[in-house]
Specification:
2 domains, two-stranded antiparallel sheet, 51% helix, 3% strand, 13 helices, globular
Length: 317
């Protein structure tokens, strides 16, 4: 990354749902759109309508790609936001300074390992590479776009993406009884989120067993849309349960990452991943968080017991 107009064709960051990395030009255009919406006062209270507008904007600017608001843009929005919240947490810490020219942090108080312990391995990447900036997209740009977001933290970054869906906004094929479960793809507040979960949320002790029973019911073939919402219910319920009484930070982070990517995984893969982490939370969650490359994770897991009949992505070779 460079703060002095990096090559717009350079590819950087995590692959999106379609298996393709974003170029700098695409990220800058997306950030510019979000910033303009903020400055013009048109930013919606909910993320979904905003991302639908962004989808039209990106399709006009980069027509060679399918800009799905509920997958491609939503996942990138979350990645940019989470990186910024970690960056800001580091920047605001006593004794920490950001050198724009050197594109690096200097530490005299809180040390890098403290941030890595707090935020996981994602903080290591932010410390090493910073966030994508140029002469138009600056720290002030990020601060403006995400000015209403809560402070960075493991719990915030998980709960932040699970806002309750109104009954009128559920997609066709969503499972019955979904009113008591949070969905990642429901309307998401761009304004400040409430710190307390609603009382209607299913209690942790009853949620987890029910979620596991749903997870194991994979023999019956169902439509892609219904399959996605079933998997999402499983993941969100488990995340909520462990947020109430977390067994370990690594466990929660691993569940969060699976929840974030669940719509890009097959039902059998997501189910197997959840069961694998639940089997040995301390060891398996740490392993999942340590391996950064998703393809390497899947290559490793494809040889593990319980993954014999799992549908992995086709690009593992």
């Amino acid at each position: 990354m460079s703060n002095e107009a990096p090559n717009n064709n350079e590819r950087r960051g995590t692959k999106s749902r379609d298996g393709r990395q974003w170029t700098n030009a695409e990220v800058f255009a997306f950030l510019g759109f979000l910033n303009d919406q903020r400055k013009d006062g048109r930013t919606s209270k909910f993320v979904s309508p905003l991302l639908k507008k962004a989808s039209e904007f990106m399709r006009e600017k980069f027509p060679q790609r399918n800009w799905k608001y509920d997958s491609t843009l939503r996942s990138q929005f979350r990645r940019i936001r989470d990186d910024w919240l970690i960056f800001k947490d580091i920047l605001d810490a006593p004794g920490t300074e950001w050198d724009r020219r050197a594109n690096s942090f200097s530490f005299s108080g809180t040390q890098p390992e403290d941030f890595i312990k707090k935020h996981g391995t994602r903080a290591s990447r932010v410390i090493d590479r910073g966030i994508l900036m140029n002469k138009h997209i600056t720290i002030d740009t990020y601060a403006n776009i995400f000015r209403d977001e809560p402070e960075a933290g493991r719990n915030n970054m998980v709960v932040d993406d699970t806002i309750r869906v109104d009954s009128s906004d559920k997609p066709e094929g969503a499972p019955s009884g979904a009113d008591d479960v949070s969905y990642s793809n429901g309307p998401q507040l761009l304004a400040t989120r409430p710190k307390q979960r609603t009382k209607k949320t299913t209690p942790a002790q009853s949620t987890t067993p029910k979620a596991l029973r749903i997870a194991k019911a994979t023999a019956k073939k169902i439509s892609d849309r219904k399959s996605f919402w079933t998997v999402q219910r499983v993941v969100d319920a488990m995340v909520c349960a462990h947020l109430r009484s977390p067994e370990s930070r690594n466990h929660v982070v691993a569940l969060r990452d699976i929840a974030r990517d669940a719509s890009g995984f097959s039902t059998s893969l997501t189910t197997a991943l959840l069961c694998w982490i639940q089997k040995d939370p301390e060891t398996n969650a740490v392993l999942w968080n340590t391996i950064q490359d998703t393809t390497k994770k899947f290559r490793f897991l494809s040889k593990e017991p319980g993954f014999e009949d799992v549908e992995f992505p086709s690009n593992l070779e």
